[in-house]
């Protein structure tokens, strides 16, 4: 090992020396002095990074967690009665009309949306390049321009599906758009879960899901996303 | 108290300081760093059952924190903080000269590009090896070593300038 090699390796990780580095340092007074200076710099660097932690931060975090936990348990108790009633109705519904395979898919979408409330925080539209990067991360090739006004985009796992989870603020409220990559639902479906209205549409190589309080913008957004994902070559009726 | 809750308490008490500092050096804002640390732990609570190895807890938390920071960064461009607002951990035992030196180093740290600052944080604050940093950042070990080498070089260059200005 020569001096240049020793110093390069030392600068990458001054606290860890290989046996070869130790051997070189013992034989080279210049590098021994360099080693001492490097350790001095590391000490100063570490001391500078150790900024003061605000008093009571750990306690505030534990309080926040306990509050969230209590709220969730409270909600669970409140909805227990409703859940039992719903379960009974569900059993009846299964008996009468059979369980729609789309129901589980819609449930997964709604649950995921509710599990990510930060997606609704008002913010400016994201740069198109950032949204396209999320699609690329999911291996989805986009055929046309993106619809404007996407304020949130995150590559989220939704159950066993891989998705790009987006939010598009509209005049009458935000519309959550989830594109499930590489999974086409068998058919188009309009659904309602409590106060959420939704639509899932096989599109491109996957399935586009729209969710909002009101479905007023669904047709326009579906058309815009079809242009984006399929290049506008297919008609809505194709999937119906 | 359930064993899950006890595990979470221990996790918070053991790692809050590290996470806050790591978050601070990522975003350069003390209030935001506190929010990031809190959100990281709340997410950790929800998926605590996936933590199998306590030795991996710190790396696991830092992974969650980095993801949170990335999400936050997508939402808004962060302002940098005034370095003079920071308080030292051990102000009482340091002399004015050391306090001044630390302030200069901190200012230089915040000027480092994130691609150099982040591996340096993982190494100096987190105590991670080059291989562990490479895994965390999704890079090769050689690339991490190069970034760490350049980070220190750039920091020393910046410090040369800062000290000259401070002494002028």
Automatic annotation (TrEMBL), chain A:
Keywords: Membrane, Transmembrane, Transmembrane helix. InterPro entries: DUF3379. The chain crosses the membrane at residues 79-99. It holds the Pfam family DUF3379. This is DUF3379 domain-containing protein.
TrEMBL record, chain B:
Pfam families: Sigma70_r2 (PF04542), Sigma70_r4_2 (PF08281). Transmembrane segments: none annotated. One of its GO terms (molecular function) is DNA binding. The keyword DNA-binding applies. Residues 104-155 form the RNA polymerase sigma factor 70 region 4 type domain. Residues 11-76 form the RNA polymerase sigma-70 region domain. Keywords: DNA-binding, Sigma factor, Transcription, Transcription regulation. It comes from the Bacteria. CDD domains: Sigma70_r4. The keyword Transcription regulation applies. GO terms for biological process: DNA-templated transcription initiation. NCBIfam families: PRK12517.1, sigma70-ECF. Belongs to the sigma-70 factor family. ECF subfamily. PANTHER family: RNA POLYMERASE ECF-TYPE SIGMA FACTO, RNA POLYMERASE SIGMA FACTOR. This is RNA polymerase sigma factor. It comes from Tahibacter soli.
